[in-house]
């Protein structure tokens, strides 16, 4: 018996050892890791691997949204939603739901507007068999839309979609099964800096989603994250410290008191004026943030008008305020800024010794372009709009000119191209590379003037037009041919409906580039001013000017004259490169134009020899004349003696 007991004990130990090895050997295939982890948690008091302080960033947050590169949104928060509903006995009550920590998370990682949606299903009461079948989709959702305003992030709006189940909403009326509402825009909740910012808030924050009330507490939020993980975000902003100002400083409402235009932008004007001593001057003025706003909204045309008081007293008695108007137009495929009008008082502080009392102008444009349907425009960099001789500078733009009431999480955001590399900003006229907007394929500084026939008081004459420094450049760069067009608005001499332009055509041939053609297109009063031909039949294409090796900057201070039809074109002070492939022009090689031929200077020795020769020649001539006279006198004396 003792032998059998020993054998039985041995077999029992062997079987137990084998079963333990099968349960806990991590290398054994076929055992799910979650089953293993559960077994370990329930049966053995040892921590899982990676459960120390170096846990992954995702495990520190309840809710995360990722794209293929990184987690863009990371959030911890406790959310409750109080939803109103009507009972069958016509009594209005509320039910409160808590968003579970294990809610399903979905979302987007777009650069300006991103979203995070939490989805969950509430457990229901058991129903009787004779009750009719319910809807299959009973998922509740809360969706957060985040806005990047170029410096910080915030919760812009919140949507809730709640199924009125029979457990949380007992005795509800049969007519309504869902509560689906959106909050007001620009909630400006949980703000923090874009760069390494994180918002934290322990206290309860309440806000309305129409009749429902959302309460959020214990917040830890990062949005628009661009780091590999969220661990480097150390610029903490607490809810008591956040900026309470709204994102959009300009808001227009329609006749029904509904918001129809939202704009965030900084605006300044560079206004030229003439002083009493007949000198040209200019002054840049900024439109204050507290400018009064008014406007109108139609289906395809919106107007925004800003007015503000000038500084100091006006140079003249001109009681009106400063004002600027922006007209936004919607066409079939795009919406854009179509026209700008302004009226500026030339006050003593900003415009000393001005001979005029005001600057008034208007002009057309085609900037801030975005989708016609539910579009939004975003741009951090400066955008220049040239209105006659005045430059309107707009920057830090967020604009919704149409369809404001449409959902922001479905906005089609258009961003302006990236800013040029600093070395290209030294040039007045730039055509950006279509494949790399941070560099220029054509860059130029030059003074361009045109002398054209002009009729004044029935007398034929000429008029000189100077292309302004703020002319708008545009163009295209191809492999062997490129163009740069400079466009500027009319002056009082010009026609009232068209801009003026000059187009330069460049050619690349072997190892050099050069100016091949020029077209001048002036819109003018035909009775008074020369009306130039269009580019199609007035283009001069037989030029070979401003030649330089490829990847070289052409420089020339001397004046170059070109005749295009009846126009005498003069170009000077040139710094130009075409077909550029370099990322920076800081260390570009320079090709200088040949200097005009000058007469050779005479050396001092040559001058002395020439002067000496002249003096010697004159002395010899005087001696010859003297001898001739003496000989003649002597001959006369001899003749008298022997005559």
UniProtKB/TrEMBL annotation:
PROSITE patterns: LAMP_3, PROKAR_LIPOPROTEIN. PANTHER family: LYSOSOME-ASSOCIATED MEMBRANE GLYCOPROTEIN, LYSOSOME-ASSOCIATED MEMBRANE GLYCOPROTEIN 5. It is found in: Cell projection, Dendrite; Cell projection, Growth cone membrane; Cytoplasmic vesicle, Secretory vesicle, Synaptic vesicle membrane; Early endosome membrane. It comes from the Eukaryota. It comes from Ceratina calcarata. Residues 60-120, 246-389, 427-581 form the Lysosome-associated membrane glycoprotein 2-like luminal domain. Belongs to the LAMP family. It holds the Pfam family Lamp2-like_luminal. Residues 1-22 form the signal peptide. Keywords: Cell projection, Cytoplasmic vesicle, Disulfide bond, Endosome, Glycoprotein, Membrane, Signal, Synapse, Transmembrane, Transmembrane helix. The keyword Disulfide bond applies. GO terms for cellular component: late endosome membrane; lysosomal membrane; plasma membrane. Plays a role in short-term synaptic plasticity in a subset of GABAergic neurons in the brain. InterPro entries: Lamp2-like_luminal (IPR048528), Lysosome-assoc_membr_glycop (IPR002000). The chain crosses the membrane at residues 607-630. It is a single-pass type I membrane protein. GO terms for biological process: establishment of protein localization to organelle. Its main location: other. The keyword Lyase does not apply. Disulfide bonds join 556-593. This is Lysosome-associated membrane glycoprotein 5.
